[in-house]
Design brief:
The chain has helices spanning 21-24, 30-43, 103-119, 136-145, 162-167, 184-189, 197-206, and strands spanning 2-6, 12-18, 123-126, 153-157, 174-178, 192-196. It is α/β, with parallel strands linked by helices. It is elongated, with a radius of gyration of 27 Å.
């Protein structure tokens, strides 16, 4: 599959690149996508939530009132779960939510996500570019030139580009990833995926394996 290459001014150039059908033209596997996205979101969870049980709350040490003669039900401690301010029963405790997904499954999930975007014509290829210093204005101008204002965009660079990352830092709808470090979730979350010309070559090689 061949696609045209655009300049950062939004104009179509005379060159084109080949999108490997083994990466951008497969039959998407929805179940594998679900497995990978579920693991990605689970691995983001800190798992530091906690509640206090009856042994951790303050108070207690003696009976709240005498055993007999009050007309009330006998009580042994104010730390009991049914008492106001008492411990919580079966509350959440710190745990590890991380899930493991095999490398081949991750690769297939990313190829499936990219194939969906390719079928929907949501993939753009631009010439390799970088900024001398971080500039949100330049990034906004790029999106404007490509008619992507206000849309969620994933930009895949051909190499490590910290200035581009910082240029997009204040744009909540724009994510910048180096070459093939993007995830299945990054691709699905974006309305459009922008590849730098050099990044396409790396993706064609790495994800086709």
């Amino acid at each position: 599959m061949k696609v045209s290459v655009y300049g950062i001014d939004g104009q179509k150039t005379n060159t084109s690149v080949e999108l490997n059908d083994a990466v951008f033209g497969i039959e998407p596997n929805d179940h594998v996508i679900w497995l990978d996205v579920k693991a990605i979101l689970a691995n983001r969870r800190q798992g530091t939530h906690a509640t206090k049980n009856r042994s951790a709350v303050a108070g207690g040490g003696k009976k709240p009132f005498r055993q007999k003669g009050t007309g009330r039900a006998r009580q042994g401690t104010i730390r009991a779960p049914h008492m106001v301010g008492g411990g919580r029963v079966f509350g959440p405790h710190p745990r590890d939510y991380s899930q493991k997904v095999n490398k081949k499954v991750k690769q297939l999930a990313r190829r499936s996500a990219l194939s969906y975007k390719a079928k929907e014509n949501k993939i753009l290829v631009v010439q390799d570019f970088n900024y001398e210093k971080p500039s949100t204005k330049n990034m906004v101008n790029l999106l404007s030139n490509l008619n992507l204002e206000g849309k969620k965009v994933l930009i895949c660079t051909s190499e490590y580009a910290p200035t581009l990352v910082k240029s997009a830092a204040n744009l909540y709808q724009v994510e910048v990833r180096e070459s093939v470090t993007f995830s299945t979730y990054d691709v699905l979350k974006a309305d459009t995926v922008i590849f730098q010309e050099g990044a396409v070559k790396k993706v064609n090689e790495v994800l086709a394996k």
